[in-house]
Amino acid sequence: MKTPPPLRIGDLVIDPPILQAPMAGFTNAAFREIVRGFGGAGLLATEMVNARGFVWLDEHEAEHPDRLWGVAEEARPLAVQIWDNDPETMAKVGRRLAEEYRVSVVDINFGCPVRQVTEKAHSGSYLLREPKRMHAIISQLVKACAPTPVTAKIRLGCSPESVNCNEVAQVVEEAGAAALTVHGRTAKDMFRGNADWDRISEIKSHLRNIPLIGNGDLDSAEKVVAAFENYDVDGVMIARACLGKPWLFAQAAAALRGEPIPPDPTMQQQRDVMLNHYKLVVDRFGEEKGTVLMRKYACCYAQGKHGARFFRMHVAKVSSAEEFYAVVDEYFPVIDNRERVMS
């Protein structure tokens, strides 16, 4: 295939046009450092930040949210995703992110399907049923953040019976957003079934100038290539699949350049990556909290490997560095399945 051109979000050039999705509880500074070390991601993103919570912390002179850990110092480009349903609150936080933190992109979460965000806070994907409010949020953020570009991430709709992504896409562009990312499921679907890339692709004809970024089920370099070959998108966003494979971006970038896809690291190398990740988390949060936080990451690194179930069962209980290292030494596989077959 022909190598896709760089993605342009306002004046920002994203090359390669492969984005790392913002994922609550996962895409913190430690994870981003691991991804950045492998390369291949054109734009990295933080976890989504609760705008109202940010304002409260600021007013009470408390430390800024943990989800902004590392943002001020780390390499650019970097996007910060925020959520709430109040235009003024969102604009206030967006201005701080643009002026004080000097982030590359401020992204708005209109796609989160979690009940705590939707039904309790009337935010995230809940707002897909209120395009006028979406317009107000985006337009105020655009003014507050200028010249930093503002983008939006949505789902196809709130449910399969109320798909309105084409209408919402037009609202997003009219309000001044610089790009649109679409996850190919509805909020009701959560992560069940398959992402509908045909629906994502159809949205492109409803946009005049801003780029369309597709998201959903991209778990291999081959699927990233296929997304560009088969669908009308300007960029792609990789989400859950990268949590246990932070080298996936580098593999996808090579494939888009028409180069051989680099093999996965050996099991020993993957183990070393995980241990480095653990050290970064503990350095920031301390041994006790860092070890507990690392449990979910460790489970991701083991996913799909021989003996993963036993490793997950034991690592889910660790609460100290000593316990963590002992479980890794005993249960994390160091020989991959192909080597087992050959032996």
Main sheet: strands, sense, barrel: 8 strands, parallel
Highest CATH level, the class of the largest domain: Alpha Beta
- Overall, the morphology is globular
Distance between the termini: 37 Å
List the domain count as a whole number. Answer: 2
Return the CATH architecture of the largest domain. Answer: Alpha-Beta Barrel
How large, in whole angstroms, is the Cα Rg?
Answer: 20 Å
Proportion in helices: 40-55%
pLDDT averaged residue by residue: 92
Structural class: alpha/beta
Which sequence of strands runs across the widest sheet? 3-10-9-8-7-6-5-4
Would you count the extended β strands for me?
A: 10
Provide the β-strand percentage band: 5-15%
Q: CATH H level of the largest domain: which superfamily?
A: Aldolase class I
Explained architecture:
With 343 residues, this protein is α/β, with parallel strands linked by helices. The chain has 2 domains: 7-256, TIM Barrel (Alpha-Beta Barrel); 267-342, Non-ribosomal Peptide Synthetase Peptidyl Carrier Protein, Chain A (Orthogonal Bundle), CATH 1.10.1200. Helices cover 43% and strands 14% of the residues. The protein has helices at 29-38, 51-59, 87-99, 115-118, 131-145, 165-174, 197-203, 221-230, 248-256, 267-285, 287-302, 308-315, 321-331, 337-342; strands at residues 7-9, 12-14, 18-20, 44-50, 78-83, 105-110, 150-155, 179-183, 212-215, 235-238. An 8-stranded parallel β-sheet has the order 3-10-9-8-7-6-5-4. Strands 1-2 form a two-stranded antiparallel sheet. Helix 6 links the parallel strand 7 and strand 8. The longest helix has 19 residues, at 267-285. It is globular and about 55 Å long. Mean pLDDT is 92; it is low at 337-343. It catalyses: a 5,6-dihydrouridine in tRNA + NAD(+) = a uridine in tRNA + NADH + H(+); a 5,6-dihydrouridine in tRNA + NADP(+) = a uridine in tRNA + NADPH + H(+). Keywords: Flavoprotein, FMN, NADP, Nucleotide-binding, Oxidoreductase, RNA-binding, tRNA processing, tRNA-binding. Its cofactor is FMN. Belongs to the dus family. GO terms for molecular function: flavin adenine dinucleotide binding; tRNA binding; tRNA dihydrouridine synthase activity.
